[in-house]
Amino acid sequence: MTTRVIIVDDQAMVRAGFAALLAAQSDIDVVGEAPDGAQGVELSRRTHPDVVLMDVRMPGMDGLEAARRLLSPPPGVTHRPRVLMLTTFDVDDYVYEALRAGASGFLLKDAPPADLIAAVRVVASGDALLAPSVTRRLIADFAQQRPVARGKPALRLKGLTERETEVLTLVARGRSNTEIARTLVLAEQTVKTHVSRVLTKLDLRDRAQAVVFAYESGLVAPGEQ
Predict the structure, then answer these.
(1) Which pTM was predicted?
(2) Where are the transmembrane segments (predicted)?
């Protein structure tokens, strides 16, 4: 199965480099490029990609607003791609808001080429949170700067079983399904089932949103490993 990708970045050389790298993969098809968020949203609506590589900072409509529009489309628009944010460490707040909006993860712009290819495949599969160790560190920083959202988020945790809560905790700490299976002495397929049930019960789109929810609800505290 071929993964359809579009690249949204205001730097032409970045777009060209990423496009060339991804197009060389037999399972990835780059179906378009755009220089800003507004054109990226229009291109996505027209080409229906599986994954959108979205720069955070762009003139006009930035990547955060574009991600919101793609992931919360207006009535009548049914296509919702997975969004992978392109960022650097100096835009952490934007990354956090993008994850809250439903972005599936992020990639540092100076990451090795192999990481970009792997990131697209991971996000396309919806099977794992990208760069869990970095994501955990960033979101822990965000959580330290914001009060825990008591009330509804915490109440929603009560709908989970004890095992599902354990799985969510480990997801929030950046563990992969394989690592969770090893920690809880479960089959990896069983872990996948638990993760799927957690997402369904909490009405979350993917693991990225699950990480944000776990911190905001107070299930996981900043700095915990």
Answers:
(1) 0.73
(2) none
